[in-house]
Design goal:
Length: 201
Amino acid sequence: MKCDQCDRPGLYDYGNGKRLCLPCHALVEDLRLRNEENGFRQQLINLAMLNEANDAMDAVAPWAATGARIPVAAIAAAATRGTKMTNIHISGSQVGVLNTGDLAKIDAMVTLTKGSDAEEFGAAMKSLTEAVVQSQDMQADTKREVGELLAALTEQVVVKRSKPVAMTVLQGIEDRTQGINAVWDLVVKVGGLVGLLLAAS
C-alpha cells in the first residue's frame, strides 16, 4: 500500500486505513514532539506566573501569606531527566543533539524491523544512534551530520533496499566516525549488516 501523503510505500499503519511511509511518519513524529515540548514549556511559564502572582499578593498582604510555591524548576528538571522514544533512549542533557525528525525516522525504522530479516540491523542502529548522541569525542555539528546520515541509511536499507545509495551514505558515516572507538565498532557492525541485507535483496 502507498503512503497517504506521497508515492512511497506506506509502512507505518495509523489505523482507520491511514498509512505513512518512514519519512512522512518522521515528520509527523517531529511535529508531535515539538507540540508536546511547546505545550510543556507554556505550562511551566504559566506556573511561574502563578508563583509570581502569589509573591506579589504576599508583598501586599504579608499577614495572609499564600503558602508554598509550585516547584517549577524541579518539575522542569524532572521532565528533562530522560527522553524516550519508542526504542531510542536519550538522556535530558543530550536532548537536541540530533535533529528530532532524524531521531523519529530512526526510531520508527527500528520498530518496523522487528520480526523481519532486518531486525538485527534495527537493533544495531538503535545502539549506534545512542552511542553517537552520548559520545564525548564528537563535535555537535558532526553528531548532527551523522544523525542525518543514519536516518538516510535506515530509509535506504529498510524501505528502498538501494545498495549503491546505502553504501555511499555508509561511507559518509564511516568518514565522520573513524577513530572514535565508542562509535566505530558499532559502525563496522552496522556496515556488515547492511552488506548482508542488501546482498540478499
